[in-house]
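Async update (no meeting this week)

Hi team, since we skipped the sync, here's where things stand on the single-chain job. The sequence we agreed to prioritize is pasted below, unchanged from the tracker. I ran it this morning and attached the output directly underneath so nobody has to dig for it. Comments welcome in thread, and please keep replies under the output.
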Amino acid sequence: MSDSQDTWLRAATALNLLAVDPVGLGGLWLRARSGPVRDRLIEGLSALPLPLRKIHPTIANEQLFGGVDVSATLAAGKVVETKGLIGQPSALILTMAERAEANLAGKLAIALDDNTCHNLILLDEGDGDEEQAPPALRDRLALHLDATDIAWQDTTDPTLPQADIDAARARLETIQADDTVSKYLTIFAKDLGIDSLRAPLLAVRTARVHCALFGDGEIDEDDLRAAVQLVYAQRATRMPEPEPESQDDTPPPPPDTNEGDQGDESETPDDFQIPEEVLMEAVKATLPADLLAHLAKQESKAKTPAGAGSGDKKKGNRRGRPLPSRPGQIDGTSKVDLVATLRAAAPWQPIRRKCSPRGTNLHIRAEDIRLKRFEEKSDRLLIFAVDASGSAAFSRLNEAKGAIELLLAEAYARRDHVALVAFRGDSAEILLPPTRSLVQTKRRLAALPGGGGTPLAAGLKSALDLALQARKRGMTPTVAILTDGRANIALDGTANRATAGEDADKMAKSLRSNAVECLVIDMSNRPQQALKQLSETLLAPYVPLPRADAKRLSKAVSTVLSD
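Output:
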């Protein structure tokens, strides 16, 4: 059986388990790109005994949790509340779950903890480890599926007959897991580096549901194998190290017969007959082959990327993505959220009408005012300041051009703006103003000549001017400086190495004082101390690449820019 077929069988098993016990298992984290395979899996959710309702990462609080029906409240003279999606038992399908922010994840997590009538399906379309559904939600869902590598020809109808599902649901309460099974799964979770207390509980529940659907009334090896594959595999952070074989021929000491000694609780219970190696092989069959490299990559990322193609976020009250309104005062510049204001005032109308001589009129007070808020994301501008002097052309200019072309392609895919500044001779020139045209940028870059002095200060000044202009237009600029560090032309165009260094330092301080993010790429044959000092002045990352081709140079720059 191929890996694709094996994964599909595991996916079908997960869907049927979810149909038997949707509330007890919490839900499913489905990681797959949009396509026919994912559509078929979603069709399999129709067997759930709950209505399916789709939600999106930007859903409003009123839609999710309900609120005050303003028109009905004013008509009835008493508070009339509407029920949100959380107020009705349902299976919530969160599309684009990798884009869900912490605010929404926290609200859904609280709803899952407080309400026992819901099921959550996370449709994760993320690419790579940096784009995943929120961990707070993943931790509350028992089942996990990664369908990215399933071929369509290996798929079949994933659901079992409804009679089998109903019979398993009726049989579930008779399937019990004794303390030995619970202890065994808890110890196994500890060996895999799983620190969540929910994981063993969900694994026991999964084993019970699997036994009710496929077993004979008592939890056995097949039930535990399915539980660890569907619950533990995506949560594992390490693989247990095998115990070293003893080289000593001395016989082991006799067992301690002291009844008061309870032994080491970390050891597997002796009265449980399923060997741990069986479950370990089940986990290994589900985990990626490069688990250790995968985990190392996860730990090395101290920060999460802000998102492809996105610049700074700023909050305001004029435009952008709507945020929940907040109490405030009318100042002539802020927009009043009329609906939210009426909702805040509606519960107090009966009391205010009795206490006011105006009678049945609508009473709005200052504390009822709610102001609109918006969050606006600016476009990102990546400014390439390229050293085209004679020394750079002699060493690394061709590699730099190739790396910039690769970076430009990535920037185009992220919908970033790019600009190109070249400094050579005695001055700097803006070869390309901010644009999204990949063809035009490549054409200008290919025509970039090399030769002459290194006016580093002039290049920094042109990049600063371009960055400040872009910021006035609402962009978030980042300057990538590619040079070999041998500055020898001052700002006035004279050939003076000492003055050139001082001018470059002044321009670097100007970039820092204006809070322009920068990146210094040393493309000389040997790392230059002057460029390292320049990066310290800029408070920017320093990337020395003495022996790198265009591909490695592009990869290093992309890694630094995404952090």
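Quick observations from my side:
The CA atoms of residues 46 and 399 lie 55 Å apart.
Confidence is low (pLDDT under 50) at residues 244-250, 257-271, 289-312.
Reply here if anything looks off.
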